[in-house]
Amino acid sequence: MRLGVNAVKQLAAGRWPEILAWVGIPREFLHFDKREGPCPKCGGDTRFRGLDESEGALFCSHCFCERNGDGIAAVMWWTGKSFAEVCAMLADYLGVQGMDGHANRRAGSNPKPQIFATPQGLVKHLIGLLERKYGRGVRMAGRWQYETFWVLRFDLPTPVGEKQKKEFRPVHQVPLGTSGDMGWQAGYPPGLRPLYHRSDITGSTDMSLATVHGGEKAVDAAVTLGLLATTNAGGEKAIDKTDWSPLLRFTVVAIVVDNDVTGETFGQKLAGKLKVMNPDLVIKIIKLAALPPKGDIVEWVANGGTREKFLEIAAVTTQWEPAPTNEQQPPSYVPFPTDVLPAIVRDFVRQGATALGCDESFIALPLLSALASAVGNTRRIQLKRSWCEPCIVWAVIVGDSGTMKSPAFDLAMEPLRRRQSAAFHEWEEAMATYRTDKATYEADLAEWKRKGRKNGEPPPEEPEEPMAVRYVCEDTTVEALAVLLQNQSRGLLLARDELAGWVNGFDAYKSCRGTDVAHWLSMHRAGPMTVDRKSGKKLIYVSRASVSITGGVQPKALGAALIGRYQAGDINEAMDKPNKEHFDNGLAARLLFAMPPRLPKKWTEADLPQKTESAMETLFGRLLELDFLLDEEGKLQPIDVDLSAGGKAAWVQFYNEHAQEQANLTGDLAAAWSKLEGYAARFALLVHLIRVASEDAALIDANQVDAKSVAAGVTLARWFGDEAARVYAIIGGDVESPEAREQRELIRIIRDHGGEITVRGLMKASRHYRSSAEEAEAALGRLVVSEAANVWTDDHAGGRGRPVLVFTLIESGDGNTNSEDPEKTGIVLPLPDNGELKTQSGDSSDGEAEWTG
Fold first, then answer.
1. Residues 67-113: tens digit of each pLDDT
2. Pairing with 719, which of 35, 253, 309, 473 sits 20 to 30 Å away (CA)?
3. CA torsion sign, 341 to 345 to 348 to 353?
4. What's the Cα-to-Cα distance from 509 to each of 240, 501, 505, 506, rounded to whole Å?
5. Strand 394-398 with 592-594, pairing
6. Which pTM value belongs to this model?
7. By three-state DSSP, how is residue 14 classified?
8. Whose CA is closest to 687, among 677, 699, 676?
9. 778-837: per-residue pLDDT in tens?
């Protein structure tokens, strides 16, 4: 099934403020009352406004007015991505499967959100969609009515003996045309979501106790005991999207948590939320005894629980208080994966690090950036027709003074700087010849004006001033860089020993903030660059502005540069306040960091062998010999390198796994993860081209990126992701909790072992668990508790050997009613506001469901 831009707009309708905030536009700028205010991108004071909340329409008189400012165009403007890239990105966020970014692009189309007139048609439609995704046998199994919407449950096909898999969908009513009749539309209505049984909560005269549960079924069970009970739609992930104010009137609010990690998380997060809203509120988190794993009050009532027993438990449960905050230590450093680099680069990094006594990452990062700049615009990796990644790397080595980062940086830069020095020498010689030729020309021109013109002689030909070939630049403004790039089709490397000065120099000569950052973000993807100048040549245009970046920085300087400060508040009373400026605008997510622990200096007689140094010189030379493709108009175009069949399979596997990881992240780490998938492809291309240049005998086809190169790119990208989590924890970005990091690492290890692993297998695969079987088993047990894995006993079919526990990943859809946010699933179906749904037995693919009043 192929769904196009119309389907994306249909599902995004009414959700644009949420989507625009998700892509990084600060929420304080997303007002749609059409009043003018400061622009979050170009920094103008009175040039930006919201036009239409339902369409996501934004407008800036200086930097954005395309396509009437609709939501897709707004995301293109903010992210710098192409139309197809944005459509695919939004489709992924909205849960659309099979998105084709170019489908349904009809001029003048004005799609409207899909509205169904009858619930029968909607249920049939939903069942059909789910069966195309999961197979035959989907049936509607439950529905819960809130004041402004409904939540539907659908049971999915599930193997015998396994826990029932299910999915949940929210729906709400909207006007059906101009007739006044009501139809049904996907998703939640605008605004905060009301509580389940809200009218019972607000209408109660007994203010002594209200209970909150982890699902609608649990609430219904509590109501049978005579308790005043409620919950929210979407569970833990939707706490901030819910209106909890009706609970603030009560003396005690008891949060009854399910017997699993998800329940614990829900309880702690909600308690903190309510405590902030009303510090005097008495909050209790109740864990009912003798529940099965994942059990809740439903099982407790079935086993004889009564209202009296519950009130006794509530009475003796101590009041919840926030846990004391302890500063989390950043994750431990994992050595750079030098092993995956091609041999010629691996030798240079290892032998150079040994000679200097520094961490290998301090040489590897600037070297990879320099090698990528040598390739530049000549090659791209083509992942599919609408997605190509350039060979651009932005890498930063982070360390205090005395950690050998500067000598390591200089060593990595030496091969390219030596070529730059030779190019300058050739240019100086050419300039000396030019000056002589220029003087001769001026004399000939004067003679021609005096005599030759009268005699009809042609004027002398003026010599052309030579241009210096540039490989490296160090300190340049965006305007100066644009001039350089006009004459360097391949692109450039920005290399600065102290890189903080690059960030701190943004907009140094401009009255509005954000202009330089916008240009740099475009250069990260080799996008077009247009610079309007105040003097001299008025307009500079570069069709593919490709710049790799590398340098060093101290930790404190990095934090100050990326977090920054900005002016906010009323124009007449601007307040200077801390702000995660370059996290919010996406710059930090594009930077690859290495911040190894400090190593004590130790004298060594080792030096970088001449053979290794010469081999690196040769490699740079061969990469710099890569040429462009000449199109029919005589313009230089990059050559797109395809994936081999094995390379494509490896890429698809990584992409899907990486997408699942990213879905569990938020904030700064989610932004970094969104760039790492592109970096995996870029590193795969760079490794492939280095293997071609070094005549790797294992390379079958020089014109296709194989699985080995993709695997190297994936390993590098994953290492940079883990290192980003460390660096963010130190300099002030959003961080992963230790528990979330542990789970992500375990899932990655198990995937690498085919989706299942034993305790002994984990001990062999991870140094962290190598010394303790108890720790390994406990960690795997936490995966089971969080519903990320199942466990079963392998008794070797009754053969010899001790039975062992086998832990198997759960990669698809099940969970309790509220543990997952229905918005993430994308497809929703309607329900009327009265009556009862009956799903007939038999072939559910026919969608035979009806409402009875």
1. 455 788 888 887 777 777 788 777 766 654 434 333 333 333 334 44
2. 473
3. negative
4. 41, 14, 9, 8
5. parallel
6. 0.53
7. coil
8. 699
9. 888 888 766 678 877 777 666 667 788 888 887 543 333 343 333 333 333 333 333 333
